[in-house]
Structures are given as C-alpha cells and as structure tokens.
Amino acid sequence: MNKTENFGKRLLKSPKVYLGDSGLACYLRGITTQAELDRSPFLGALFEGNVAAEILKSQVNQGRRKELYHFRDQQGREVDFLFASGHGGLWMVECKASKTVQPAMAGPLELLRRSMGDHGPVRLTVLDRASTTAPPSRGLTPGVDARDVQAFVDALGGKPPRPRKARRR
Length: 169
Prior knowledge:
Elements: H1 3-10, E1 11-13, H2 22-29, H3 34-39, H4 43-61, E2 69-73, E3 78-84, E4 90-95, H5 107-115, E5 122-128, E6 139-141, E7 144-148, H6 149-156
Parallel strand pairs: 4-5, 5-7
Antiparallel strand pairs: 1-2, 2-3, 3-4, 6-7
C-alpha cells in the first residue's frame, strides 16, 4: 500500500453547503452594513462562501468541470478547499476572515500536504481579506503563499499579480 492510498483512507469527505450569493446570505442573516458584517459570528462562513463561489466561477469560465472539495482527516486537521489547479496538480486553500495572516495559519495545510506523500504538485494558499493598512503578504512559510481574495481570483484566472497602490501615511 503506498502513501497515496493511505492518504485516501484517512480523509473524511465532509459535505458543506454554501449560498453562492453573498448579498442574499447577508440579507437572510440581517446583515446590512460592513460594520455589522465585521462583527458578525458568520463572517468566516460568509467569507468561505464567497471564495467557493469565485473558485466555481473560475472553473466554469475556463470550461472545466465544477469540482470543489472540503477535507478533514481523522485527526481533525482540515482544509477549507481542495480542487484541481488546472495545471495537473491540486490547490489546497485555507480561508481566514482576518485581514492579516500569521505563519501558524499554514500549519494544517502543511500537515495535510505531508500526509499525502508523493501525490504530485500541490499548491498551498492561505486567503485573507485585503487590508488597507498592512503590506500584502506573499510567502507565509516555505511552500505556502498568502493572498487576499482579489489576488487569488486573479491567480485562478491566470492573470499576473496586480501592482499594489502605495499606502497613504
């Protein structure tokens, strides 16, 4: 039995449901302003739903099958999204609704990647919301990049990174 077979046996497929229209999801939760959204206990779930919609839109726009997975192993380590990257590999994405990412946020991705064994190219990304004050992060830890949602959407579509506007002091 090889490492890939072991990896497949240890993963638990857990269904998740997302509402593809984040505006409707906010309306149904009674969230009407950005300040309410920022304080909402549903911010993380709404952020994940928005990211899921962007991944699926990208796949449809590229003429690919819609395939998006959430995985958790038996030890409780999970990754928010796992999908084919379109370049013969996989892309694992962890969503964080914060505006700044920390290296510790890459831990679950790295652990799951190591447990996969030699499964081919796997891209690891931690997503956050764009900050207007902090400089953008790219390299979180070796092998894990950090992106805000717009940079991630651009990467899904194969666009080069956008230059950042200079911060006002």
